[in-house]
Hints:
The protein has 3 domains: 138 residues, Aspartate Aminotransferase, domain 1; 59 residues, no CATH class; 236 residues, 3-Layer(aba) Sandwich (Aspartate Aminotransferase, domain 2). Helix content is 42%, strand content 12%. It contains 16 helices and 14 strands. The strands form 4 sheets. The chain has a 7-stranded mixed sheet with strand order 2-8-7-6-5-3-4, sandwiched between helices. It has a 3-stranded antiparallel sheet with strand order 10-14-13. A two-stranded parallel ribbon has the order 1-12. The site of pyridoxal-5'-phosphate (PLP) has 14 residues, from helix 7.
Amino acid sequence: xxxxxxxxxxxxxxxxxxxxxxxxxxxxxxxxxxxxGRRIIPCNLGNPQALGQQPISFYREVLSLVxxxxxxxxxxxxxxxxxxxxxxxMDADDFPSDYVLDLGERYLAQMxxxxxxxxxxxxxQFIREAVARYxxxxxxxxxxxxxxxxxxxxxxxxxxxxxxxYVIDLLIGDESDGVMIPIPQYPLYSAAIKRCxxxxxxxxxxxESGWAMDRTLLESSxxxxxERGVAVKAIVVINPGNPTGAVLNEETIGEVIAFAGENGxxxxxxxxxxxxxxxxxxxxxxxxxxxxxxxxxxxxxxxTSKGFYGECGHRGGYLEIRxxxxxxDANLSFTDLVLKQASVNICSNTVGQLMMYLLVSPxxxxxxxxxxFTIERRKILDDLHDKAVMIRAGFDHMDGMACFGRTGAMxxxxxxxxxxxxxxxxxxxxxxxxxxxxxxxxxxxxxQEPGTSHLRIAFLPSREVIEEVLxxxxxxxxxxxx
Length: 482
Ligand SMILES: Cc1ncc(COP(=O)(O)O)c(C=O)c1O
C-alpha cells in the first residue's frame, strides 16, 4: 500500500484491528501471482459465479427486462412477428416466456417508482410479503400450526452481511456486552463484534462428532464469560455451517433454543446455506420452525449469494425478526431500531431486492420457465455435491488429512494432522498457493481448537479444474508433510 504521504491521522482502532482472513494475505499474494501471469484458482470465497457457475436463466431474464422495461413491449412485438414466421433463424427459446414478461410488468407496477428510485427503507411491502409467504411455505406453517411470518418484521438488506451488522450493532451497547459465536466461525461475526467494541465469546464445535453443537460446551463458554463480567446478549448459529459444512438436526436446534431461553439470550440464525444440503437424510430445518410459539428472540438471515442462485454480486438478503425484544428504558422495540438503521442507509439496492423477490417466488409447476429452472437448479446442486465428493476422496490420498462431518454449505474444512515442526496452517496454505495456484484459507482465519490446524476450501471450481489440480495438491501435500 502507498504510505508515502505527509499526513498521519489516528483512526478507529477497532477497524484497524478487524480481521477478515477470506480476503487476507493469502488472497493478496494470489492477486500478485495473477498479475505475474500465474493461473489462480480462487477457492477462498464462496463466490460461485467467479468460478464459472452459470446464473439461473429465469432470474437473469427477469432482471434484464425489469432494468430496461421498454424491452418488455419490444419482446412481445418480436414474439408476435416470430409466430408469424417472419424471423428466420430464431426459435421459441430465444424469447422470454409470457410468464417472464408478465412477471416483469407486474413487478414494475408494484415497484411504483421504478428501479432507479429509493424504495421504502425496509424494502417494498410486496417483497416483504413474498418473503413472509416463502418462510411459511418452507416451514410448513399451516401443517405445524406455526405463527405466521410477519412482513412488518422483515427487512430486505444488501446481502446477509448488512442484516447481521444491523443486529450486532444494536446488541452491543458497551465494551462489556458480548455475543457467543461458534468456533470455527465465518469471520463476519468476529469482525462485526470487534467493530462495535464488544466481546467475542467463543463456543467450540465438536469436530470429531461431525462439528456438533454440545450443550456442555455452550454452558461452560457462557459461564466463563459471565465470570469475566461479560453481559452475553445473543448466540450466533450458522446452519448449515461455514466453514464446517455441518447441518443441524431438529433436536439440536431445539436444544439451542432451550439454552437461549433459559439464559436470556437472543438467537442469530445464519441460514444463508439453507439450500446447500446434499445428503438425502439431512434436510434443512429452520430455527423459525423449531422456535414455534416460544418467546425467545430470533433474528434469522438469508441471502441471494449462496444456494443454487450464487448471485453474490447482486447483494440481496433479508432479516426476519421473531419475538423482537422491547428496548429497555425506551418505548420502542428492536424492530423500530433496525428500521432506524435501515433508514439511515435509505434503502437496500433495488436489484438485490428483485433478486430476493425471485428467490422467494420460483416459477410454479404449470409456468413455462419451470422445467428449465428445475433442471438448472438440480444440475448446480448435483455438481456441487459431486465436486465435494471428488475433493473428499482426494483427502484419502493425503497423509494426515482428516475431514469430519457431513457435506453441507460450499466448503470442506479438513484438519491437517501432520504439519512439519515449526509450520502452521498459514504456511501450508501459502505453500499450496505457490505450488498449485489454489487459494484456500487457513483455519486460523475462522478460529480453531488451540493446537489444531485446518484449511477451508470452497468446492466451487469446475470438475475439470478439480481433476487437474487435485493430483498436484496431493503431491504437494505429501511432500510437505513428510
Ligand atoms: C455464513 C455466512 N453468512 C453470511 C455471508 C454473507 O452473505 P452475503 O453475501 O449475503 O452478505 C456469508 C458469505 O460467505 C456466509 O458464509
